[in-house]
Amino acid sequence: MFELLGITPQSLVAQLLIGLINGSFYALLSLGLAVIFGLLNVINFTHGAQYMLGAMLTWIGLNELGNWLGIEDGFQISYFVMLLIAPLLVGAFSIVLEKTMLKRLYHLDHLYGLLLTFGCALVIEGLFRHWYGVLGESYPVPEMLEGGLRVSGLYLPYYRLWVVALALIVCFGTWYFIERTKLGSMLRAGTENPKLLQAFGVNVPLMITLTYGAGCALAAFAGVLAAPIYQVTAVMGSNLIIVVFAVVVIGGMGSIAGSIVTGLALGVIEGLTKVFYPEASSVSIFVIMILVLLFKPAGLFGKVR
Amino acid sequence: MKKTMIAKLVAASLVAGLGTAQAAGVSDNEVRIGVLTDLSGIYSAIEGPGAVVAAKMAVKDFGGKVLGKKIVVTSADTQSKADLAGSKAREMFEKDKVDLITGNVSTASALAAMEVADQKGKISIVTGAASLPITNEKCHATNIHYVYDTYALSRGTGKAVVDSGKKTWFFVTADYAFGHTLERDTTEVINASGGKVLGSVKHPISTQDFSSFMAQAQASGAQVIGLANAGGDTIGSVKQAAELGIMGSKQTVVPLLMFISDVQALGLKATAGMNFTVGWYWDFNDNNRKFAQRFMKEFGGKAPTSVQAGVYSSTMQYLKAIEATKTDDAAAVMKHLKSINIDDGLFKGKIREDGKFEHDMYLLQVKAPNESKNKNDVAKVVKVIAAKDATLPLSESKCKLVKK
Question: What is the pLDDT of residue A65?
């Protein structure tokens, strides 16, 4: 059978794994989008820019910060520290964005939030393109995670395994928090009926602000993970965001578990397209999106509202 | 019947009259140069804003005036998209009344702009795009291909690698005109030297993740993985090849089109030892270095790419031709440009009847991190490829302008 497909079993496994790795990026990013949409009803187009900011901050921490602060002898913030700091910084930045701008649009249609966040994304990306150009900067794989495993002709870089493991942990943790904890149940209640929840003495506006910050921090976290794999550029997010939106649509807008599962599955499907019909690899996800929209408009895991 | 004949005669004489009116002096009282390039998209580091700087430097060095008329430089952004390139070219000719369009990075964009220039009877100079058809199947009487083409790249890098004894190849190719031509031209060189192409994979332009394609190349077992892509795609390919442990293995990754800007973005650690072919390199001789120093002052300390140097040189040649012919009429200027030997210290050669500027090419090798003195010092010239070896012989040309 493998001869028929023109590919050896090893390389098929390798391709599936690569697909899974890309899928874990899709899952992390679409998870953030799903959380924000599910709880705030905002279609957050800044997500790609926030992902890029995560990667950019990581690069700046390693290469530029020392110069800016005027500290000689190569002052650097390492990758692992940035894995914590970058999401916090981007989360804080996003909270400012929410407090000053997004908040004013909640009583309007989704479309206004989408336009505002899209505009913000263009501005942020434009600034970074102006500062760092389109080719961007290279970020090295942290020394501890260099190299890889060689299993019967398969080469698995340690770093990629690290990414998959970390992404899965974070995805599952987020799902557990929202679906299985008390605080999570309050968040969900807030989306159903914010006025009633407020009557119980819960500070709903604060909850919404923090949720937005956390969703965006997830994007930045994915950005830090991506920095050593992809070139760190101003446009790295805008390349990805459209695909991620397709993932969210396929999974069902606002469905947490749906976004994780679809993210991983679509990564694998895209990976297989790259083997069997590479020319179509950039459109395969969108073909699926169209089919899902036609036959199950609420998405595979979504509920009709 | 008779009426139409008369009408045609009248029209012909009017056109002829118009022709002579234009032939003397400068149209619209100004010489306008349009830099049509990718100012913000994937190829903006290769040509982009640096090309606008280069064109302005040329105008300044020329004295700002030709035949007593002011020289104006305008620019427009194609984002490397063909539809945008076509409409911007039209806008430049119709609204800005430019006499020349230069730049034109990315094959599809260049072909679109060339088409418009041809319709308007104006000159286009292609510095950024690489495909051979620009002066072959798709050649135009008023077009010049100035810096390099896929033929030169395949004869430069491709041949050097095959000659070093690496015979089996696998291509990772950008799925559009440029990638296809580069793969085809390099395949010719490989087959002619007794090598073999084991396979190829075509990826969409601006792909984010190349690991799947690189893993396929790895599995092919080919000695050489040839990258027939450019800019961000080349960077992604090299980066993920390194990650998959291809660098330092028995397989070699060979970027068939690379610019110093790509090397700078990837860093010397990832690229040390790689060969690539260019039409010009800033650190080759004193003239080049002198120009590069002046360019760096204008452009934030960045050394010019071959393409940006080409924009400077070609703009200069264009202005000199206007001065020599006493007109900015496209046909007269083109005739002059194709008749002279060009040697401005940066480029030396001759523009052929098909519009190809035939000059020497340079095979570069990326320096090791400890050899490099500063961020612009990325490569050394290991071989000068003679003009005749780097250019498609006219006898094999498919250009309609070539008389056989």
Answer: 87
B237 CA to chain A: closest CA distance, Å?
A: 10
ipTM at complex level? 0.84
pLDDT at A281: 87
The number of distinct structural domains making up chain A is 1
Bridge partners (DSSP) listed for residue B200? B171
Which spans in B206-285 are helix H?
A: 211-220, 231-243, 260-266, 268-271
8 A C-beta contact, residue A113 and residue A105: yes
Measure the CA–CA gap between B362 and B351, rounded to whole angstroms.
18
- Residues of chain B with pLDDT > 70, as a percent, come to 94
Q: Domain B151-278+361-387 carries which CATH code?
A: 3.40.50.2300
Give A232→chain B minimum CA distance, Å.
Answer: 10
Q: Give the range of the structural domain holding residue A193, as residue numbers without chain letter.
A: 15-295
Amino acid at B369: P
**Which residues does B contribute to its contact with A (CB < 8 Å)?**
40-42, 44-45, 175, 201-204, 206-209, 211-213, 215-216, 218-219, 231-232, 235-236, 239-240, 243-245, 261-262, 264-267, 269-270
What's the CATH fold of domain B30-148+285-355? Rossmann fold (3.40.50)
B212–A271: do the CB atoms touch at under 8 Å? yes
Please tell me the pTM assigned to this model. 0.84
CATH code for the domain of A51: 1.10.3470
Report which DSSP code applies to B44. Answer: T
Q: What percent of chain A has pLDDT over 70?
A: 96
Across the interface, of A18, A136, A271, the residue whose CB is closest to B265 is A136
Residue B175's closest chain A neighbor by CA? Answer: A279
Calculate how close chain B gets to A187, using CA atoms only, in Å. Answer: 35
Which residue in chain B has the smallest CA separation from A19?
B212
Arithmetic mean of pLDDT, A56-67:
90
Confidence check: pLDDT of A238 > 90:
no
Across the beta sheet with B275-278, the strand order is B275-278, B361-366, B379-385
pLDDT digits 0-9 by tens, B302-328:
999 999 999 999 999 999 999 999 999
B contacts of A279 (beta carbons < 8 Å): 175, 202-204
Choose the weakest-confidence range: A156-165, A213-222, B352-361: A156-165
Cβ atoms of residues B329 and B28 within 8 Å: no
